[in-house]
Design brief:
Two copies of one chain form a homodimer. Chain A has 331 residues and is α/β, with parallel strands linked by helices. Helix content of chain A is 38%, strand content 17%. The longest helix of chain A is centred in the first third of the chain and has 22 residues, at 96-117. Chain A is globular, with a radius of gyration of 19 Å.
């Protein structure tokens, strides 16, 4: 893709899972990449995620809640991939104001900074399928009602809609991708704070049993991180995307028990057990979910390319090799 | 209604248009009423609105953005009528962070205070038809897609959904009414900051022409303030309302040009003129709107009782008598 060659790109959450993988892709395409990350220990940032491109990117450690830093960093950029967020649903209930500050207020201040000093920027915002809540029908398309089940969902929705509003009212080109479960090298595996798949990887590699909640029949779709990065790049490159929201997703829909079985078959050993839902998880469980992503296929030509087994294999290979960069064996 | 007798009631925005009228009704029903109002000059609060019940209510001047004051005031209340809000759509675009602080962040902190110290409280939240944006179909029922057209709409939505979420997850009884255009004694008439009907009243009484934007054929529904107060009281009294959202509305649907004609016919003189939309208004204009309010009729037995002409007449009589409490003739 020639779109990004010699352009200035800012990625918030740039040391995080998806942001860092996107940085790798953009460096390869000849972009001048700046990564913003707060490196809050509980969140997704990990400097090891940019191993191999450390000297080819600019790392700026700061928080998206810092309006002055963000205004400065945004001033001369051609693209903003706006991926920073508080992603823990449990945390959003325990500390709702923090979630609001990051997922809503900081987004608004980023957009205000663009409006005032760089209205020519193109923004791609990483949103989430969590906005749909418990599906009314499957697969879930972009017309599905919005029903967030937690504070995080409400704030992410506000953050997403600010982007669409600034596109509409001020012509600041912006679009949003509603990501489904994304997995792959670079995700937080220390615990379940970013994705349950993270802790599954760690437990498998430690030879401990995976816990599958409930009957394990809940259906999910998964995207390998490189497919997600492809979608971000396509959305950034296309003016047809401006003002739009697109679901990501996969045609491989799988139950969580089956997923655990597949991961165990990959040859790193391990077992799983079915355990009852913890009450705070049950309260926000959404049952089955998988998306209809035909809109982004039609409009931007995106399709996931990496099969689930292949993606999981790559993931296990990565963490088998680099586990000491992702968790402390003593902890 | 016996529900409110000897109960402790807090009204945010209590010196404002609807809050003060609600206070009158609650005092009459024997409630012990505390009014919170920031008295920010640009907003709706006006001490004259509680003329006649001044010594029967407690007035606490503070801002809903003050979490300590709010936590203290909420501690011992049986009911919260949560009416305070930033309502100017124009302001929400000019100062989006302020709008977020009042309409979203403060709401979250009010709910957190209830969760921590008074989870037995019943809350009625004043929401707005603005959440629906430009209608896809008419009349607009509660299932209509949510499409806010400005920062205010996005933040009001977040504020509304926090209430429903806290009802669902924590069992804090809360419901929301989506108000349509409400008018009557006590509304801000100094300018168009609260409702365009306000400035119309002032202009008529000053013998100046009313400005109707566009062709004047835009349809709207209107509720007289006492009907709105009835709905708030019914929603507060009914546990069937918990976790629900209800539209208010009217069967009298009228074009704005026609409305201007009716107001002029009331006998206070005046004229109107059709003028082109100011650009910042046009950007957020929603075309025709009127609601389907059958849900609240079925579930809570609410129906508007005051006809448009009768309500407008009462309104003009009130401002004719009390104009000097609502605007400075020199300004």
């Amino acid at each position: 893709m020639k779109t990004y060659r010699n352009t200035k790109v800012l990625i918030t959450g740039g040391l995080g899972f998806i942001g860092s993988r996107l940085a790798h892709a953009l460096v390869k395409q000849g972009a001048e990449v700046t990564l913003v990350d707060s490196l809050i220990p509980q969140y997704g940032g990990n400097p090891f995620n940019i191993e191999g491109i450390r000297d080819k990117v600019t790392v700026n450690v700061c928080d998206v809640r810092d309006p002055f830093a963000m205004a400065y960093l945004l001033m001369d950029k051609d693209f903003l991939f706006n991926l920073a967020g508080q992603t823990s649903h449990i945390d959003s209930m325990a500390n709702p104001q923090t979630d609001l500050d990051i997922n809503a207020a900081a987004q608004l201040s980023i957009l205000e900074a663009c409006r005032k000093a760089n209205s020519g920027i193109k923004i791609v915002f990483a949103s989430t399928r969590q906005l749909y809540g418990k599906p009314e029908y499957l697969p879930v398309d972009e017309k599905h009602p919005i029903r967030p089940v937690d504070v995080n969902g409400i704030n992410k929705l506000a953050g997403e809609w600010y982007h669409l509003l600034y596109n509409k009212v001020y012509g600041i080109r912006a679009c949003a991708l509603r990501l489904t479960n994304t997995y792959g090298p670079g995700m937080r595996v220390k615990d379940a704070r970013q994705t349950f798949l993270g802790i599954w990887v760690r437990l498998l590699l430690e030879g401990k049993p995976i816990k599958v909640f409930g009957d394990g029949l809940q259906l999910r779709d998964f995207n390998y991180v490189d497919d997600c990065v492809d979608a971000l790049l396509l959305a950034g490159a296309s003016d047809a995307a401006n003002g739009k929201v697109y679901n990501l997703g996969s045609t491989e829909v799988v139950g969580l028990k089956k997923l655990a079985e597949v991961m165990i078959e990959l040859g790193y050993g391990g077992t799983f057990e079915l355990v009852p839902f913890p009450p705070e998880r049950k309260a926000i469980d959404i049952g089955d979910y998988y998306s209809d992503f035909s809109l982004i296929t039609q409009e931007l030509g995106w399709q996931p390319k990496v099969g689930l087994r292949e993606g999981l294999q790559k993931t296990m290979v990565y963490y088998h090799a680099h586990r000491h960069h992702y968790w402390d064996e003593e902890a």
